[in-house]
Amino acid sequence: MNSKWVQTFGNLLKCSQVALVTHVFPDGDAYGSLLGLKNILEQHGVEVFAYVEDKNSNGKFSFLPGYETLITFDSNTDRQFPMAVVLDCGEKKRVAGGNWIFEHATKIINIDHHISNSFFGHDNIVSEKFSSTCELIWYLAKRFTELITNESATCLITGIMTDTGNFLYDNTSAQTFRASADLIDKNADIKTVKFNLFHSKSLSNIRLLGYAIQNLQIILGGKVAFLNLDKYTMDQFNVSYEDLDDFVAFIRDIEGVEVAILLKETKNKQIKISLRSKSYFDVNKFAQEFNGGGHKKAAGALSNENMESTEKLVIDLLKNYF
Amino acid sequence: MNSKWVQTFGNLLKCSQVALVTHVFPDGDAYGSLLGLKNILEQHGVEVFAYVEDKNSNGKFSFLPGYETLITFDSNTDRQFPMAVVLDCGEKKRVAGGNWIFEHATKIINIDHHISNSFFGHDNIVSEKFSSTCELIWYLAKRFTELITNESATCLITGIMTDTGNFLYDNTSAQTFRASADLIDKNADIKTVKFNLFHSKSLSNIRLLGYAIQNLQIILGGKVAFLNLDKYTMDQFNVSYEDLDDFVAFIRDIEGVEVAILLKETKNKQIKISLRSKSYFDVNKFAQEFNGGGHKKAAGALSNENMESTEKLVIDLLKNYF
């Protein structure tokens, strides 16, 4: 391991107090790395304050050990931290409570796996060779194997499983599997993780998927799968905008389909364009046509046109590619 | 490792000719272990004849390296084998070409991971501590690491991924992840495996799933999800009986559902009852009410009543359990 990383992680273990923070709209890797690292540091006697923007933002991850200890930013505090760790954030503007944490911490350590990371920390432990920030935390902590408890193992494997689509995305490496094996040896509560992540789909969400499939369009010679969902339909099925992430991945898995597109109407009548590709199509590049972006196989953009116009625009533009 | 296993596997490597066979209606673990072991033995100079009942039985696995070399049983041959290996078969009656292979081989080695295995071989390498027969083959061969090529690694990881539901079933252990890591290090073509197993769902199958969800019944206080599909509907969507395995697992994943049931009409008008449970319900026991069986969380049975009567019977019986 990079000797600078060893030194940085060692310094962290020596602190008396540390603040941890992750990105806005935290996902499994954000919560997993936040709570996993918190638990590891606590085993070493560090007092840890783990912050999220909104404590009740995502009940989906409330099963994680330590979730109840999360706190929100308090702008009236004069608490200063000798050290703050920003987890799973590629850029400064995505850091939850950004200004607050940068003002209240003497030193910022940036731990992340996004290729786009801008190295905004005083120290940066950043590499895209990890499936997830959780895998990176495992890698840093595994030399101190006694620090990894069943609680932190449960948190870390959650981030690995969510960020790899349960070991299906291209970021799954031999190292990802070895990390998972080690975390199971540390008694990660994999049963609870799987139950909450994969075996608790809401019935209304399933019903909406059934309806959506009935309206699925397969166009451009079978290469493109296209879905749109307006707010009226989502309301009828009692499904919120945020719960539709799986739909676009689901339709990408159809035989012959290279690009999957979901248009969904936001509360304020914009259209969110979600794009996924299977092998060769660069959806990041395509999303730029709408001032959006992301990764080669998963990207998004926002349109201010209505559903009908956005659909026409997207399909017309796609015709140039196929 | 068990010293008897080392001796048995060592004897196999010393043969000049070996026949390999697996179970009828081969799945990913059957094809994977058959072709994986074939390749490993060939690296050691053994001449291998790998048999399947019907060469064209399941095109789904034709991407596996060596698939084209599979042969079918020929009752006119007088070929005798010093050794035959039966892979992934819990019982003698499930061995494809059962009589043929038992008549033509001097010695039978039984390699399997089913808890119900009846130890029918002259030598038996059998343990339910492996997710799959493929994981067991990896375990046997890993001391001879030079024998594992990218081709055999591709075959073996296929069986691991199919038999664990891509690492989601309870049989996924730390060892399963370590086996997968090793096979990726051996350049298993994981991209091709994932493409064929998970990213090539047929459009007609997806359309039928959408239709089925519209007709999904959630009964007995939300604990039971119930689907039935008659032959007329399957024909309309151009989906065959064999392609419906995923549906019952899909509806089991609904929040609050403990038991998922799919009734499907076979060609000869029987009703196949497919049962899955999520955590505590023993579907194997329930299937016995219909003279069926299987595992605690996955079982099946056949009914000679029509769809309507079978549905009534199943639901009435279930009421005693909830």
UniProtKB/TrEMBL annotation, chains A, B:
Protein name: Phosphoesterase RecJ domain-containing protein
Pfam families given in the database record: DHH, DHHA1
Residue ranges of domain DDH in the record: 18-160
PANTHER family given in the database record: BIFUNCTIONAL OLIGORIBONUCLEASE AND PAP PHOSPHATASE NRNA
GO molecular function, one term: nucleic acid binding
Organism in which the protein naturally occurs: Tindallia californiensis
Domain DHHA1: start-end pairs: 233-318
Source superkingdom: Bacteria
